[in-house]
Design goal:
By secondary structure, this protein is an alpha+beta fold. The chain is built from 9 helices and 10 strands. The strands form 2 sheets. Strands 2, 3, 4, 5, 6, 7 and 10 form a 7-stranded antiparallel sheet that branches. The chain has a 3-stranded antiparallel sheet with strand order 8-1-9. α6 packs across α9. The model has no long low-confidence stretch (mean pLDDT 88).
Amino acid sequence: MEYKISFERPIHLKLIGQQSYKKGWKKDSAPKGNVCFLMLDGAFSFTVGEKTVTAEKNDLVFFKSNTKYKVFAERDCKYFYAHFSADADPANEESIDEKHSICFPEKISLSEFPEKRERLIWLLSLCERISREKPIYTDLRLDNIFCEFLILSASLHAEKRKKSIPLSIKKIEKFIKENTSATITLTDISEKFMLSKQYIMRSFKRYYGISVTHMINSEKLNRALILLKDTDMTIEEISDSLSFSSSGYFCRVFKRYFSLTPTEYRRQSAW
C-alpha cells in the first residue's frame, strides 16, 4: 500500500529514538501519530487485521496514525522509530492535494540504495541527537531534517518504480526539465503529448510519487537556486525568467518547498 503525506500543513516530529528487543518480544499498539520504523538489524512482524508485514534489516515501514497493529520480534532486533504528525491517506484517496504531497510506501527495502540508506540513518541519528540535546530552535530544526528524511525515502520508493516508466511519460519528464523558463500546465502537456490528463496524473503519482505540478515547480525552483546563488538577478527577474505569475507567488512557492524565502536562501548561500 502507498500513502500520500501532505506538506500543506507543517509536519511535526513528536518522538524519535532507537530501541532493541530480544526475540519473542511482542506488543499491541495504536499510536495517535504516524509512525515509521527503520530496521537496523533483526526482524519484526507487524500484524494489521488479517495482514502481516515483515520488516527485516534495511527495511523502512510506515503506519498511518491510529493504525492498530501487533508487533512481534522474530529475531533479536534493533531499529529507529519516529512518531510524527502529518496528514496521510491511502494514495488512491483524494482527501489530500496531490500538488503538495509525496507518495510514501508502507514498506520499502533500502538494500538497493546503500549510500542513501546511510544518509537516511544519519538524518535519523541527527534528529535523535538534536532531540536529546535540545538546542535553540529545536523544533524547527527537527521538523526540517525529518522532512528531508521523508522526501528522500519517498524518492527512493519512486526510483524503484522508474524502471517500468512508459516512454511517453519519460518524454513528458524530459520536456518539463528542458523548459523551466516556460509556462507549463497539465492541459498544455495533455495536448502536446495527446494523452489524457487523468492518465498523466495517475502515471506521475505512480512512477514518481509526486504530481505533475510538483515536478514542474521543483524543476523551476531547482533552477531558481542556481540563479540565486550564481547571479545578481533580482527576485523579480528570476521569477519572470521562470514564468511564475508574480514574484509574490514565486516567493510563497519557494518558501513552501525550502522553508526559506529566496532572499534568505541567497543570504545563506553567500556565507
